[in-house]
Automatic annotation (TrEMBL):
Pfam families: GntP_permease. The lineage of its organism: Bacteria, Pseudomonadati, Pseudomonadota, Gammaproteobacteria, Enterobacterales. Coiled coil: none annotated. This is High-affinity gluconate transporter. One of its GO terms (molecular function) is gluconate transmembrane transporter activity. InterPro entries: Glcn_transporter. It comes from Escherichia coli. Keywords: Membrane, Transmembrane, Transmembrane helix.
């Protein structure tokens, strides 16, 4: 979401292009890559084992479990499609785009989750509020990191480094998508922080290709630029990345095996994602 705002992209188009990017990435990283990794058989990690028998009758259905997280995407994609026929700034356009805005779409999903996972299953309000409190605690640090990344992004913009990058891109004829991906990868490898690397790269690239007169990015599709930057932030990780050690600890792997699995999986996702973005940019 922060990248979408940084580049001024349409969230619906990001979702639509994102599906096209995700499918080949999942096939390559999830189906093809494991065939080349050799024997990595391990016992089932303890965190995947239930401490006590689970009452299957008290669980939401598979369809509901999938539908609720997809509600924001469905709403925003529907808004993007509806905008093809709606006239801008008309009452209908205003209503549809209000409902399809990111905060409202997320709010609707939260209310639906509140009902389907809480009150509809017989839980009282105290249980629901405790669940929300636990969820907020788990994402509080992520929100803080996003805010810090935004501060760093603005600092980089104010230093004028974006102008230098813009000159290099114009003289070297480098694709903005490749440049966004490469800058994000380098920052990710140096800091180990995916969010910070993405927001910092967004500040550099947007400053390099922004037209001050119109406030719009020049010569790029903002939605594809979001995906290229996101692909760069989801690249090969190593020992300075907290997620590397979490994956290693949860699955009881050696550092070598973690690099062969988690590291290579993210690298394949990143490279395939960039390739698909470049292909789409040629035909879209």
């Amino acid at each position: 979401m922060a990248l979408v705002n940084a580049y001024g992209a349409d969230m619906g188009m990001v979702y639509i292009y994102g599906v096209l990017v995700t499918i080949p990435s999942v096939i390559c990283a999830g189906l093809i890559l494991p065939k080349f990794l050799g024997n990595l058989e391990r016992p089932t990690p303890s965190f995947l084992k239930a401490d006590q028998p689970v009452d299957m009758n008290n669980l939401p259905s598979f369809g509901v479990s999938i539908l609720v997280p997809l509600i924001p995407a469905i709403i925003m994609i529907s808004t993007t499609i509806a905008n093809i026929w709606l006239v801008k700034d008309t009452p209908a356009w205003e209503v549809v785009n209000f409902i399809g805005s990111s905060p409202i779409a997320m709010f609707i999903a939260m209310v639906v989750a509140f009902v389907l996972f809480g009150t509809a299953r017989g839980h009282d309000m105290q249980w629901v509020m405790n669940a929300f409190e636990s969820a907020v605690k788990s994402i509080a640090m992520v929100i803080l990191i996003i805010g810090a990344g935004g501060v760093l992004k603005q600092t980089i913009i104010d230093t004028g480094i974006g102008d230098t990058i813009g000159m290099l891109m114009s003289h070297g004829n480098i694709s903005p998508y490749i440049m966004a991906w490469l800058i994000t990868v380098l920052i990710r490898l140096a800091t180990g922080q995916g969010v910070v690397s993405a927001m910092t790269a967004a500040g550099i690239i947007s400053a390099a290709i922004l037209d001050p007169a119109t406030g719009q990015l020049v010569g790029v599709n903002p939605a594809l630029l979001v995906l290229a930057t996101a692909a760069g932030s989801n690249t090969l990780t190593h020992i300075n990345d907290a997620s590397f050690w979490l994956f290693k600890g949860y699955f009881d792997l050696s550092v070598k095996d973690t690099l062969k699995t988690w590291g290579l999986l993210e690298l394949v996702n990143s490279v395939v994602g960039l390739i698909i973005v470049l292909i789409i940019s040629m035909v879209a």
